[in-house]
Amino acid sequence: MYALTVLDHSALAVFRREHPWLEFPDAILEVCIYFDDNGGPTRLTALEESSDGKAMPADVNRFGIDTVLSLIRYAPQGTAEVEECPEERTVWALLESLPVADGIRPLDDVEAERATALQGAYETLHGIALDKLRALRDAARSPREMQRLSDAVASLPALLEQVDEAHKSSFIEVDLWRLVAVLRDELSMPADYEMMASGEDRLPSRETIEMAETNAMSGPVIQALFELSPVAFSISSIGQKSSRYVRVNQAYLDLVGKTWDEIRGSEMVASGVVSGSEVRAERLMLLDRDGGYAGMRGEIRHSSGEVVPVMISARRISVAGQLYDFEVLQRASDD
Prior knowledge:
This protein has twelve helices and ten strands. By secondary structure, the protein is an alpha+beta fold. Helix 3 packs parallel to helix 7 (177-188) and helix 4 (107-138) packs antiparallel against helix 7. The longest helix is centred in the middle third of the chain and has 32 residues, at 107-138.
C-alpha cells in the first residue's frame, strides 16, 4: 500500500492564494503526493480539467521545480490517504504460501518449488516494469531521455536471480523496487521449518529451535552480518504471545546482559528482556500491517534489572514461507 496526501480543489484554491507568484494553473483539479516508508516524497501526480470538462492526468513536469517543492511543503494541509497496491498484495500472499521444508520431502525439491514460485511473481513485476518504462520512453521529450529509458528496458533482467543493485534505479523509477527486493532477498535465503506445529502457547522442541536457527543462519551473508556487526540484531518468530528467539548476535547479548543459552528459544516477553507494553503491541501491529517500521522507541531490560531505552527498526521477512521478525536495536539517549 502507498501512503499519500491528496490536495483537492479546495486545498489547491488556498494554495494558489498563498503562492500567487507560482501562477499555479487553475485547470489543475487535484494533486497527489506519494511517500515512501520513511516519510520521504517519492512521486507526484495531478488531475486537470480537459476542454470537455472531464478530469484527465496532467503533465506534472511542466509545473517547475519551485512549484513541486512548494506543493510538497504544502502537503500537510491535504488529506492523508492510503492507496492499495495490487502487486504488493500478490507478493505478500505468495510469501505466505511458499512451501516449507518438513523434514520429509527432499530439501532440494522444496527449494526448487520456492524458486519457481518466486520467479513467477517476479515475472509479473518484470512485465509491469517494462510496460511503465516503455510508457515513459514513449512520452520522453528529448532523444537523450528516450535513449536512457530504452537502455533501462533492454537491461531489465528476465530472471530474478540476475537482479542486483545495478537494476535498482530502473525499478525505483516505476515504484517497484521494494517488491522486487523482497523477492530477491527471499530467493537468497534457504528453506527452513515451521517453528510451531500448532497453537500459540505450545513450546517448540529444542530440535525445532535448532533447525530453524540453522536454516535462518545458513546464508554466508547473514552469518557474517550477525558475527561482525556491532549493532544488535535479533530474529524471532512472529506473534504477540508466541514470538520466540530464533537467533541474536553478540551485540544483542551484550545489550541485554544475557548468554544465548539463557534466551535461546524463549518467548521474548517471558524471557524478561522484552517489555509486553502497548508500545510493543503498536510495533507488532505495524509489522502485521506494513511489514516493518523504522526508528521507533522502545525499552528492553538488562539482566541487572536496568531498563535500557532503545531505538528499534524491524522488518518482517519470509524464509521458505515461514515469517520471522528481524529487529535492529540501538541504545537510545534518555532524553
